Amino acid sequence: MAEAAKNTASSISSKSSREHGDQRPPTSRRAELHTTNAMGAVPDRDIQEEQSAAVELVTKPPFGERPVCFKDTFREVAFVFQATNAIATSSFLQGASAIITVSIGRDLGMTQGEITWITASMALTSGAFQLGIGQLADLLGRRLILIVGLGSFSLFVLLVAFAQNPFWMDVVCGILGVCSAMVVPSAIGIMGAAYATPSKRKNMAFSAFSAGNPLGFVFGSILSGIATKLFNWRASYILIAILWSCFTVLAFWTIPSVEAYQPGVKFKDRLKTFIKTFDFVGTILTVFGAGMLTAGITLGPVDGWNAAHIIAMLVVGVLLLVLFVLWERVWPTPLMPPHIWKDRNFTFIILTCLPGFMSFISSQFWLSFFMQSLQKLSPLEVALHLLPQAIAGLIYNMIVGVLLHRVNNTLLLAIGSVAYVASNVLLSLMRPDSSYWAFVFPSLILSVVGADFQFNVANMYVMQALPSHQQALAGGIFNTLFRLGSAIALGSSTAIFSSSIGTTEALEDPMVPYKKAFQLSIGLCAASFLFLPFIRLGTQGQSRDANSGDSKSEAGAAPPAAITLSQGVVGVPAKAE
What we know:
Residues 79-540 form the Major facilitator superfamily (MFS) profile domain. By secondary structure, the chain is mainly α.
């Protein structure tokens, strides 16, 4: 009788809860369900559905909620597209230039070293200025710096179209690197702060965003090939100027105001803070140190390694970079916070991904040059040969967005390293008359596996290693290392290529200089295997359980930020549509 009374009371209580709305938290209701079942009562259909929903809530994390800085999902998608274009700025221009280098060099009478500097100067200045501009964006405003960067890029790329000599070409390309340095850390800062909470939504957004770097190179090559085929190489830069002018106009509508400073702080006050805290000395040391080192490596084969000015540039460049590291340890608001290198995973992820990306940029440049010089392909034909890489890259980025929170990210890094090595081995074995489908095609497919897998993992981790109001700085650190690495890789491969041209072996076999350049890429990407065993990284971007608060993301926590500006409230989620 007592047991029947309890069952009756439980049934009445359950019915009342359904009629008037049970306001208790899910954990309390699940506890009651467990107690009722233990006493032998059979839950009705509504209780079973509630119990199933509760279990699903725990076992199946939500996709993630739309950040409040976006008014609707369409505005969110438009921003992610714009941010992807932003990070593709430098690589898009590099890709566009790579397949028309022969035409440019012939029209302007450029040497091999000057031709290489078309691409290397952009990578050098982009990397050298990104740390400083990343801090500048955090202090003065990410949205402002991003829009100014897009507008200035469209202006200066138009000047490239009217270049009349090698000096004009290389100098303006260097200025374009500064413009891209304004765009990239600002976009990364907004992305990281807006998507502050790990979730599947963040993974998908960052996967699309990360696609900009490798795919920008490929799509830049394709559009440049089409424009050159229809008109000439100058039309390629005019087309880029038109595209980025459109992106600049759209930026006023698509870019949200997600800043590191407290909303309402006057620009005058932010400017005062900038003057007091900006690392001017660190910026100067980075720019001149990286510039001299890369210039020395690139000009060495042409002017001779024993030349006094080459030795001076190499020695002074290394010395300035060493001084930069020492300076960052004492300046209160450094460009590159030393504490970030204390994060074991961050250090080894960078050491793993950097040589792979260096090999990617170098091999792409020399593959395009090989197709134009030895295979005598037109820019449009080169672009069509590179098209499978773009298609594969889009597919891989969608796959990575799904895998980041499901598969151990150390494994993804390892897959990327293997793909890089296999890709460059194929390129080093090919001949001018080799089958495209046997060598170049699989190499392109494999290279973008390495780039997409490693870039996504590294980018996601870096954005979690620093606090939200230093997200632009985090993006600057990440891209600075990769851009400077690209410049050094191009300079080193040019040195090897140039030193091999006049040899007896190269005269008998014109493929020898290209083979040695590809062999350098093999050595670079193979170096990543030295650091993979030290990475302890699980999944990233997993949504936190509402009840337990646990997360599968294993990003290291960073100490309090050095920047003295107050942190604004950013990235607060809103209801998903």
